Amino acid sequence: LLDVVSQLAKQNLQVLVLGRKHMLKQNSRWRKDDMEKVQKQASFFFADNISEDDPFLLYATLHSGNHCKFITKDLMRDHKACLPDAKTQRLFFKWQQGHQLAIVSRHPGSKITFQHILIYDTVVQTTGDSWHIPYDDDLVERYSYEVPTKWLCLHRKT
After folding, report:
1. CATH of the domain at 25
2. At what angle do helices 32-41 and 2-10 cross, to 10 degrees?
3. Is 83 inside any structural domain?
4. What are phi and psi of 92, to 5 degrees?
5. Which pLDDT score is estimated for 132?
6. Is pLDDT larger for residue 111 or for residue 85?
7. So what's the pLDDT on residue 144?
8. 125 phi and psi, to 5 degrees?
9. What Cα–Cα distance (Å) separates residue 14 from each residue in 2, 7, 57, 121?
10. Quick check: is 148 in a domain?
11. What percentage of the chain exceeds 70 in pLDDT?
12. Fewer CB within 10 Å: N-end or C-end of the chain?
C-alpha cells in the first residue's frame, strides 16, 4: 500500500485510501509507521471493521468524476450480480474496465507498473465489410476488468 500511494503521490495525483479501522493497528500486515506515511501522502477514510468497504469505494470513485481511477484486488462480482438486468451489468463492466487500475508488476524498491486502460471498447466492431473481434489465447486467464489484447480482423471477399 505504501509503495502504491508513494508512487501516485510523486505524480502529484490526489489519492484517497479507503480501508477499515483495523489497518491502523500494528500487526504483521499493517505496520503503524507505514500507515502514518500513507496518511501523510493521501487522504483517507477508515470504515468500521464490520462494514463493507466496497460501497464506499464505488461511491467515492463515482462522486469524484469520470477522470477518477481506483485500485483494488476485488473483482466487484458481487456488486455486478446485484444489478437488475444484463444491460446494467454490462454497463457496470464497461465502467469498471475504464476506471479500475490493475498492478501488472511490483518489485520492492522499484516502480510499480499498472495495466493501461484502453480508450476503445473491446467488443466486436464492424466497419463496412470488416469485423474486428477481440480474443484471448487458449488457457489465458484474466480478471473480469482486464480486456483481451489480441484482435482477429476479418474482411469479406468481394
Report:
1. 3.40.50.11980
2. 20
3. yes
4. -60, -45
5. 86
6. 85
7. 61
8. -125, 140
9. 15, 11, 15, 27
10. no
11. 92
12. C
Set of cell numbers at residue 111: 516502480
pLDDT reported for residue 89: 87
- Express each pLDDT in 101-150 by its tens digit: 888 877 777 788 887 776 666 777 888 889 888 887 776 776 666 667 78
Q: What's the whole-model pTM score? A: 0.71
Taking a C-beta distance cutoff of 8 angstroms, is the pair 94, 119 a contact?
A: no
Look up the domain containing 74 and give its range: 1-116
Instruction: Catalogue the long-range contacts made by 18-22 (C-beta closer than 8 Å, 24 or more residues apart).
Output: 18/44, 18/45, 18/46, 18/47, 18/53, 18/56, 18/57, 18/60, 19/44, 19/45, 19/46, 19/47, 19/53, 20/46, 20/47, 20/48, 20/49, 20/51, 20/53, 21/46, 21/47, 21/48, 21/49, 22/49
- Among 26-30, 145-149, 153-157, the range with the most confident prediction by mean pLDDT is 153-157
What lies within 8 Å, CB to CB, of 101 at 6+ separation is 69, 70, 71, 114, 115, 117
- Rounded-to-integer distance, Cα 60 and Cα 122, Å: 26
Q: Does the CA dihedral 126-130-131-137 come out positive or negative?
A: negative
